[in-house]
Amino acid sequence: MPATDLPLLVKAAELAGDIACRFTGPEARSWDKPGGAGPVTEADLAVNAMLEDMLQKARPGYGWLSEETEDSAARLSRERVFIIDPIDGTRSFAQGSRTWAHSIAVAERGVVTAAVIYLPQRDLMYTAAKGQGAACNGAPIRVSSALDLSITEVLAAKPNLQAHHWLGGTPPAFIRSYRPSLAYRLAKVADGRFGAMLTLRPSWEWDIAAGDLLLREAGGTITDRTGTPLRFNNPAPRLNGVVAGGSALHRALLDALDQDSPGITGH
C-alpha cells in the first residue's frame, strides 16, 4: 500500500529532522559501536526511538529493521517491513556537516514500495511510491540521460577505483565525485545531478532501501555489483555492493567490473 504509506513516511522524516536538528553535531555525545561498526551519536538514538514508536504504532503488522535497533528474526515473517537508517552519514553529522540524511522505506515481499530520503539541513525531501514516480520537494525528478561515461560525474569513494576490481586492472574513465551519505548519493543520481554511483563493499539494507525505489521510479537502474536486482528484508541484511544510474551508464560500469574480485571494506 505505497499510496498510504508514503504520507506516513514523510511525516516521520519531518519529525526526525526536528529531533536531529536539536543536536549540534560535534557537541552531540558520540561513541564507536562494537566490532568496528562505526560511530553512533545520541541524535541517532533519539531519532530511532521516535521512529520506532511512531511507525510501529501506525503499522503494527509491519516488521522492523533499523541500523540502531538490535535485529530480530521476527521481521522475516512479515509481509511488509520498515527499513530505517535514523541518520545516514553519522560521521558527517558528528563533524558538523549538513550532508546527512534520514532514510526511511517500506519493503513488501522484498521490494521497496514507499521511500523517503530527507536532508533537513539542506531542505531536501526526496519521495517515491511504487508506480507513482519520484520527486524532490514535490517536483518530479529523473535520472540523467547521459550516455558517455568518460565525461560523466560518478559518485564513488576512492577504494572503489582500486585496480583489482576492474577488468584489465584499470577502472573506466569517469569524473569521480563523493558525498558522505550513501542515501544522499542515491538521491543525487535519482535527481540527475550525477550520472551514476557505485559502492563495491557489502552494503547494509538500511543505507540503500529508500534510494533503491527513488532510482527505479526516476527511470534509473540499480543492482548489486553483479547486476542482480536488489531484494530487501534478507536474513543477513547486507547487499553485494550497489551500482546505480541511467541504464547506459549502469551497463558501462557493470561491464567494466571484474566479477571475480572480492568486495572492499571502505565506502
CATH topological fold name of the largest domain: Fructose-1,6-Bisphosphatase, Chain A, domain 1
Question: How many strand units?
Answer: 16
Structural class: alpha+beta
What is the correct CATH architecture of the largest domain?
Answer: 2-Layer Sandwich
The arrangement of helices and strands along the chain is HEEHEEHEEEEEEEHEEHEEEH
**Superfamily (CATH H level) name of the largest domain:** Fructose-1,6-Bisphosphatase, subunit A, domain 1
The proportion of residues forming helix, as a percent range, comes to 25-40%
Rg value: 17 Å
> Mind summarizing the main beta sheet?
7 strands, mixed
State the domain count: 2
Q: Spatial order of the strands in the main sheet? A: 3-4-5-6-7-8-9
Parts with pLDDT < 50 across at least 5 consecutive residues: none
Q: Tell me, what's the shape? A: globular
Mean pLDDT: 92
Give the SSE layout:
Elements: H1 2-20, E1 30-32, E2 39-41, H2 42-58, E3 63-66, E4 80-88, H3 90-94, E5 101-108, E6 111-119, E7 124-129, E8 134-136, E9 139-140, E10 153-155, E11 175-177, H4 182-190, E12 196-199, E13 203-204, H5 205-217, E14 221-223, E15 238-239, E16 242-245, H6 247-256
Parallel strand pairs: 3-4, 10-11, 10-12
Antiparallel strand pairs: 1-2, 4-5, 5-6, 6-7, 7-8, 8-9, 12-16, 13-15, 14-16
Helix pairs in contact: 1-2, 4-5
